[in-house]
Every structure is written in structure tokens, then in C-alpha cells.
Design brief:
84% helix; 3 helices; mainly alpha
Length: 116
């Protein structure tokens, strides 16, 4: 009896590990709305943000290169510039999130008014 119980437990364990391995290999998919389904105003906001983000990151990259070549005294001022660049980037991201929330809310409210 002990041997059959042990075989059963090992069988269940083997099946469980097989299922866990299979489920770990499949990555969960996140449903994101396609840009086509967003309104043109949202698309424009996102594209504008992408352009400004790209410019900020290029500015940051150039500042980091200056930092590497700078003397220790100049490095402190360049660090302050880098902090300001990153702070501006964070503010831009917050502003984009706020704009998207407002646009989605306005769109939802408009649909509720027309839909019932």
C-alpha cells in the first residue's frame, strides 16, 4: 500500500511539473489597444510625445558624452544638467498620461451621452 501511494504521489508530482513547465513557457499577452482604434487626437499626442522623448534622450546621450570628457569640477554642473533633463522627461511622461486620461474620459463621456 505504501508503495502504490508513493507511486501515485510521484505521478501527480510529475504531471504537475509538466504542466508548470508548459505554462511557464507561454508568455502572458497584454491586450493593448491598437493605435488605429484610438482617436486621432490621442494618436497625435502619442506621436508628439515620442518625438519629444527621442529629442530628450538624444540630449541626454550628448550630455553623458560631455560628462565623460569633463574635468571633475565640470562634472558636477553636468550632473545637474542630467538631473534636469531627466526631471523634464518625467514631467513630459506625467503630462502625456494626464492628457491621455482626460481624452479617454472625454471620449467615454461622449459615448455615454450618445449611447444612452
Amino acid at each position: 500500500m505504501k508503495m502504490s501511494l508513493l507511486k501515485t504521489i510521484l505521478g501527480v508530482l510529475a504531471l504537475g511539473l509538466g504542466v508548470l513547465t508548459a505554462s511557464a513557457q507561454t508568455a502572458p499577452t497584454v491586450d493593448r489597444p491598437a493605435l488605429d482604434k484610438l482617436g486621432p487626437a490621442l494618436k497625435q499626442m502619442i506621436e508628439t510625445h515620442r518625438a519629444s522623448t527621442k529629442a530628450l534622450l538624444e540630449q541626454r546621450k550628448a550630455t553623458i558624452e560631455r560628462f565623460r570628457a569633463a574635468s571633475p569640477a565640470e562634472q558636477e554642473t553636468i550632473k545637474a544638467e542630467l538631473r534636469a533633463i531627466m526631471k523634464n522627461h518625467q514631467q513630459d511622461q506625467r503630462e502625456l498620461a494626464r492628457q491621455i486620461r482626460d481624452a479617454i474620459k472625454a471620449r467615454r463621456d461622449a459615448q455615454r451621452k450618445t449611447g444612452g
